[in-house]
Amino acid sequence: MSLTDNAPRHIPDRLRSPLQDRLVSWESLLLAVAIAIFIVNSLASPYFLNAWNLSDATFNFTEKAMIAFAMALLIISGEIDLSVAAIIALASTAMGVAMEMGAGTPVLVLVGLGTGLLCGAFNGALVTKLGLPSIVVTIGTMSLFRGISYIILGDGAFRGYPSSFSWFGQGYVFWVISVEFVIFLVLAVIFGVVLHKTNFGRMVYATGNNATGALFSGVRVDRVKMILFLLTGLMSGLAAICLTSRLGSTRPSIASGMELEVVTMVVLGGVNILGGSGSIPGVVIAAFVMGLVTFGLGLLNVPGIVMSIFIGLLLIGVIALPRLWTMWRKRAG
Amino acid sequence: MTHLKSREAILFGAILGLLLVVATRFPGFVAPENLIAVFTDTSPLIVLAMGQMAVILTRCIDLSVAANLALTGMVCAMINVAAPDLPVGVILTVALAMGAMLGAINGILVWKLSIPPIVVTLGTMTIFRGIIFLLTEGKWINAHEMSPQFTGFPRADLLGMPVLGWIAVLVSAVMLLAMARTTLGRSIYAVGGNPHAAVYTGIDVGKTQFAAFVISGMLAGLTGYLWVARYSVAYVDIAGGFELDVVAACVIGGVSIAGGAGTVVGTLLGALFLGVVKNALPVVDISPFWQLAISGAAIIIAVAFNAQSGRTKGRVILKSAEHAQ
After folding, report:
1. Is residue A209 part of a domain?
2. Which of A305, A321, A325 would you mutate first to test chain B, the one with the most B CBs within 10 A?
3. Residue of B122, B139, B250 to mutate, testing the A interface (most A Cβ within 10 Å of its Cβ)
4. B163: in domain
5. Residue B3 falls within a domain, yes or no?
6. Residues B205-253: tens digit of each pLDDT
């Protein structure tokens, strides 16, 4: 896409020390942004520093972040899944159908996760077995999955989920710590360990950096990608359970446009959209940044669509500013 | 013989087949007046798909077209409310210029800062929609606030077809010539086909991508005015999600998402295919809720088909390496 890969590599005389590296890393920059937003918010609104309000704020990002973890791995491996919000719609619809047939909470959970896995398998098969570009495949399945929801529901809705089902989206584990927030934390740790501490994680990076090279080094590239599509589908199914449980109803328009927020979160977290690099801590901080921005602006009565301007500017700004900075330094030096 | 097997011929056959199936039960659907109506209804999609094609050919993607359309359309409507007597020519110029400017913002970010196009246009998509809200505070501009000449232009009849339809014909014809006969058109193919080779032949890759974004933006701006005038209403969410239909039209028409391959005729047929499906569903009494799933399935089938026919036959030395590239 760009021609930078043709340019000679700049190799420094001495590597930077790990501490120096950590100080100027993307994650610390993001963390500084998050802290700044936190301080500005607590000064701007007297309602911000309240345990219950902050707990409510976490719902702005927990469901998206669950998907964002899997999406981060998928994007690092060089693929993308734009159908995640549509998978939520289809999984939620499937749970609604199961509920109408008298299924209890455990079955609903299985149906939600199973639908997510099936959708992920469909995407993964098209990409790995037929060798199709994932961006087009998932733009297609995005219409297909949500389309099936529309065919089943039309302009109707499913209501009346069993009361035990509401635990996922409305329950609290301890004081203000919601079930969703705990799921988010547990997943953050699991995905962090998988990506940064296991062989599989190294294979994901290798696949994204050089798929052919990885293949000749013994990485089963297609299998890695298939697993990541399945994982993204599974996480979308989980997010569907949480979101459906929180809203208490299913409409075919549920979670519409969420795929863009998930991708924004991943890119904001420092994952290279072209694949090959990124980290889970970055995505976690990005989730907090997006959640805090949305919540803070909400307290100031800023309408949702105006918040989306901030998210859009944030997305372009965090990538553009460092590049402008290097360009400016090159010109000055 | 090669012509018969080409992608365009197959797609053309599919559209004809679709029309025939509908016609066996509802002959009125293929009456000339109705076909013209279907074409006119598909015109905004055709115009946008032409711009999107240029962008995708250069290995980029423009997801902000629908938001650009909505923003430019809203600004045109607001100008019309403020100055009802302004001639349509001025409005058209404003729409083209403003659309081109919004496209140039995308282009500059891709060209000068080399930010991946999908990130840039995801961002500008939400920003453009947000700006409409800031401009209007969420208010609608309705038919009674617009002047008759403003809303009448795209619907005016010219030789049996509304002006809107003729604009789609004109844009397609200009693009057909431009892609085949101008330096920019050939550069667009060259950049997408092989960016490194393009650089060595003296083509500025970034600048060409910038130009493609400006074309796409300009056509989105033009469609913005036409859309608002045709439906006589402007609000934040007009054409919401339409960018995916536009990408779908290109993909169905055989434009390769990897850049460098795709034709104006193919894109036109891709848009028409979606347009015929959309208009035929209510006629054959299938719920319009089926449309989304059908266009999704069409995209997947089209891209699978394109990949099969476009695969280069090389010698496979490692069987399992075939898919990895």
Report:
1. yes
2. A305
3. B122
4. yes
5. no
6. 999 999 999 999 999 999 999 999 999 999 988 988 788 889 989 998 9
The answer to whether the beta carbons of residues B324 and A222 sit under 8 Å apart is yes
State the complex-level ipTM: 0.80
pLDDT (tens digit per residue) in B269-289: 999 999 998 888 888 888 878
Encoded tokens for B183: 């330096």
- With contact defined as beta carbons under 8 Å apart, do A201 and A194 qualify? yes
State residue B178's pLDDT score: 96
Which residue's structure tokens are 């000339």? B32
Question: B-chain residues within 8 Å CB-CB of A212?
Answer: 321, 324-325
Chain A partners of B118 at a C-beta cutoff of 8 Å?
A: 135, 273
Residue A115 placed within a domain? yes
Min Cα distance A2 → chain B (Å) is 7
H helix intervals, chain A: 18-23, 26-44, 51-58, 62-76, 84-100, 105-128, 134-153, 167-170, 179-197, 199-209, 211-216, 221-247, 258-268, 280-299, 304-332
Interface test with B, best of A75, A128, A139, A265 (most B CBs within 10 A): A139
Nearest in space to B116 (alpha carbons), one of A27, A11, A276 = A276
CB burial of residue B255 (10 Å; 0-12, 13-18, 19+): buried
CATH code for the domain in which residue B246 is found: 1.10.3470
Whether residue A331 is contained in a domain is answered as no
Q: Do B304 and A130 touch (CB under 8 A)?
A: yes
- The pLDDT of residue A59: 85
Output the domain CATH number for residue A159: 1.10.3470
Q: Chain-wide mean pLDDT for chain B?
A: 89
Helix (H) or strand (E) holding B208: helix B205-231
- Quote the pLDDT of residue A95: 95
Touching A: B residues 232-271, CB under 8 Å: 236, 244, 247-248, 251, 257-258
Question: Which residues of chain A neighbour B102 with C-beta distances below 8 Å?
Answer: none
What are B318's two structure tokens? 């490692």
Strand pairing partners for B161?
B158
How many angstroms separate the CA atoms of A90 and A113, rounded?
11
Structure tokens at A249: 């109803």
Domain count, chain A: 1
Q: Is residue B84 in a domain?
A: yes
Flag whether A260 is in a domain: yes
Give me the residue from B122, B196, B304 closest to A263, CB to CB: B122
- Residue of A27, A26, A33 whose CA lies nearest to A296: A33
Domain that holds residue A210: 58-321
- Domain coverage including residue B188: 43-306
Q: Which two tokens stand for residue B159?
A: 């030789």
Q: Do B321 and A212 touch (CB under 8 A)?
A: yes
The residue type found at A115 is T
Does residue B201 fall inside a structural domain? yes
Q: Supply the pTM of this predicted model.
A: 0.85
Chain B residues with beta carbon closer than 8 angstroms to that of A220: 320
Total domains, chain B = 1
